TrEMBL record:
SUPFAM superfamilies linked: Dehydroquinate synthase-like
Domain annotation 3-dehydroquinate synthase C-terminal: ranges: 209-336
Family matches, as CDD domains: DHQS (cd08195)
Protein name: Pentafunctional AROM polypeptide
Boundaries of every 3-dehydroquinate synthase N-terminal domain copy: 96-207
Keyword presence, Transmembrane helix: yes
Amino acid sequence: MSSSCVVASIRNGVPLRTVKVSTKGGTYDVVVGRDICTSTIFANLVEEVCTDPKQRVTKFFIFVDSNLLGLNSGLVTSVEVALASIVGADKVSLYCVPSGEASKCRDQKVEIEDWLSQNGADRRAVLVALGGGVIGDLIGFVAASYYRGIRFVQVPTTVLSMVDSSVGGKTAVDTGYGKNLIGAFWQPILVVADIAVLDTLPIRQTRSGIAEIIKAGMCSRADLFAELESILSSKGVEGLIQDTEQLRDMIVAGIDYKRSVVEEDERDTGIRNELNWGHTVGHAIEGMGVTGLHHGECVSIGMVYEAMALRAQGQLSNIAVQRLEKVLKCCDLPTVLPPG
């Protein structure tokens, strides 16, 4: 896998980290920092990727889930204002998607596509996915199929979506026969991860996202895993979350790991299967209907069970499994299925 592609910069006094992703399906930046969306930085970043005069933006369509709209209406308003500064307020529309995995379905996709047609979305429209993994996957798939492919921007609002679903171009909806069965590979033109949005989220959601960063460390970044061990054992997950710079750097490391994998295997035919570690069992747990567990918590349990299987096959040491269990517990993440 390729070496790190992280660039540090300061824009309008705000420290930023940019991960540059380059695939056959598109090249784009993942920009990470604090208070990006509530400053002029967001508008500048979007405008910079929409400068082609042949593809001048006609309208922006923002999609947000109902939970985020309730928790952080100020963020939504800031994004609306930023986009209005580019095309005018009358060319920015907002669509609220009901919160939850149930919205990641064919019926919701059709409803959104019809709404886009009714509101004048053409080939030069740009969709903005403002939310977690459900919003990103759903709107990415809409973007991939509407007019056979239009531009979209990812604005992930959870750690999990920042380090995982917003990067790599996988878009999909679920069906009654399984998760992510219908979809497409469609890369965004920009990803903006504003860690200030995490302040309004329950700590449990942030913990679930950190499970993906732990996965990155276990798979190929021994230095990242050791650093997480040190941080979480010394000050716990709450201490990490409260340290803005440290949290940003961990998120960037997780994103950069994902970048290195998708650049080598964009269409999931080989090494990208590595990203599914923990998800095979995790998705099975979700499919069992185990109540009360978040996606990241299911992945946490899945990582441990799959690590145990590797240990039984002689491919992973007992010490490695113990270290994994310990760091997950330090993050207050489950390592076994709940009773019942």
